[in-house]
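Input structure tokens:
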């Protein structure tokens, strides 16, 4: 596309270091692409002429031309002979995230390291939970004695039929019980044949990425949103298209504006991390979008069991009559994260492919946890435990709401919290966000930064991305009160 001449912008190419032992053109291509994606090279920045860049880096002009050719081909740069080379206009919504960097010319080691750099997932905080850790349920309440008893009973005399290679979709008894639970408690009618047991929601999302994303395909997701889902989709080659979230959840009209996008990942019951619930009008619009575009929806219902007024919402999948929703569920927010047990409910046409893909990864989930969970559900412990966890989370939420300082300068009032295990409160600026979180850290209180949940290169102004995300379920009320006391001091209120 021809571009109108613009005054050349200063271009900072500092830090590009090329290893003469490796393919130089590819290294240069990667270095420039990384700078374009992370915004160090802004749109419409004029790049130096290939001859100048070659002499600056001490490489041949031919090498630079090859790197530029690749960037042209992938749409990162534009230009005309004689008019110079410019960074392309990539809107934030369409700016591709880096596809996986495995190329025949790379050695496998460098492909792995590259993956680490581009899709690094900060490890969740580990160790004993503290206030206000996000993503952690009240696992101090888990009935370990019951679990130990059921586990001992299973292992004392396991049925030989369950000790060989099992069904890659997961233990049949467990899948039948999950189907019954979803039908009775969540209004989601499905057949056990539609269920694939996974190692938690993350693996379910990752399987969706492996099976549904073709390299370069555009995939929409909430922005801000669950970054680990974005990483899983991006390493499968997706171009991530962030879609705004407002008071009704994902902005479906904005999604509908994206061209060539037929897959969306979202958290309808309790948007992660803002806490908004997708309105019914948006749910219906979203299903209509999927039908119109022949699209698919990945519904991550990671904490759907936690609803504090009325019964849990029926998932989007329960409204789906067209086989367009892939439902992700997890036991990790009702039991404890380290259990690593979750599941997918798939449109019937996709179930077999997912089970097969699962088999290639790891055959199937380990039988002990599946079998004990099946017993745990069959004997009624699971339902009882859900009720216990919901009551505890509500009471811990109340402790946070009641004890939160009346006004924290630069911080919006706490929202009404009807669902989930965390809440999100907006802050005036990034500087204030940092200040509040650092002060909290100094007194041993964990608060997550809302700004860390945004996709890189988001168009939303930086200060509007600021906020605090607080998990309220991780520790009992007394510890919440202590943490709030410490916060008042740290924030000098
Ligand atoms: C939105 C969302 N989805 C999925 C997960 C992952 O859940 P699991 O532990 O089951 O993999 C999390 C974990 O915090 C989450 O916040």
């Amino acid at each position: 596309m021809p571009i109108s001449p613009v005054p050349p912008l200063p271009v900072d190419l500092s830090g590009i270091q090329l290893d003469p032992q490796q393919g130089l053109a590819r290294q240069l291509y990667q270095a420039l692409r990384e700078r374009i994606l992370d915004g160090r090279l802004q749109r419409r920045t004029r790049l130096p002429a290939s001859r100048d860049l070659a002499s600056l880096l001490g490489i041949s002009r031919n090498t630079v031309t090859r790197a530029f050719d690749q960037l042209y081909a992938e749409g990162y740069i534009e230009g005309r002979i004689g008019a110079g080379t410019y960074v392309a206009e990539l809107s934030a919504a369409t700016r591709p995230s880096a596809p996986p960097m495995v190329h025949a010319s790379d050695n496998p080691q460098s492909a792995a390291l590259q993956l680490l750099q581009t899709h690094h997932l900060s490890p969740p905080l580990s160790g004993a939970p503290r206030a206000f850790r996000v993503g952690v349920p009240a696992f101090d309440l888990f009935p370990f004695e019951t679990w130990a008893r059921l586990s001992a009973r299973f292992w004392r005399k396991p049925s030989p039929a369950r000790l060989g290679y099992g069904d890659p979709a997961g233990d049949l008894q467990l899948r039948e019980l999950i189907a019954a639970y979803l039908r009775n408690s969540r209004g989601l009618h499905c057949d056990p044949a539609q269920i694939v047991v996974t190692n938690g929601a993350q693996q379910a999302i990752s399987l969706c990425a492996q099976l549904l994303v073709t390299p370069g395909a555009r995939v929409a997701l909430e922005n801000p949103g669950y970054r680990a889902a974005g990483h899983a989709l991006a390493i499968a080659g997706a171009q991530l298209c962030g879609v705004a979230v407002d008071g009704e959840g994902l902005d479906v009209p904005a999604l509908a504006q994206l061209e060539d996008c037929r897959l969306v990942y979202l958290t309808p019951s309790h948007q992660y991390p803002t806490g908004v619930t997708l309105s019914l009008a948006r749910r219906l619009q979203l299903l209509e979008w999927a039908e119109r575009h022949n699209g698919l929806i990945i519904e991550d219902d990671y904490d759907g069991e936690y609803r504090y007024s009325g019964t849990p919402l029926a998932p989007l999948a329960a409204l789906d009559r067209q086989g367009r929703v892939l439902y992700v569920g997890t036991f990790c927010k009702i039991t404890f994260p380290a259990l690593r047990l979750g599941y997918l409910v798939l449109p019937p046409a996709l179930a077999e492919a997912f089970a097969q893909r699962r088999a290639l990864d790891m055959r199937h989930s380990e039988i002990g946890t599946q079998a004990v969970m099946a017993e745990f559900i069959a004997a009624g412990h699971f339902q009882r435990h859900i009720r216990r966890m919901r009551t505890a989370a509500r009471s811990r939420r109340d402790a946070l709401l009641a004890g939160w300082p009346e006004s924290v300068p630069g911080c919006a009032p706490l929202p009404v919290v009807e669902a989930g295990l965390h809440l999100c409160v907006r802050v005036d600026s990034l500087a204030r966000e940092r200040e509040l979180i650092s002060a909290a850290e100094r007194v041993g209180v964990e608060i997550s930064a809302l700004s860390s949940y945004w996709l890189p290169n988001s168009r939303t102004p930086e200060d509007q991305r600021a906020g605090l995300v607080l998990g309220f379920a991780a520790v009992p009320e007394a510890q919440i009160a202590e943490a709030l006391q410490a916060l008042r001091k740290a924030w000098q209120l």
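The first helix runs from residue 24 to 37. The radius of gyration is 25 Å.
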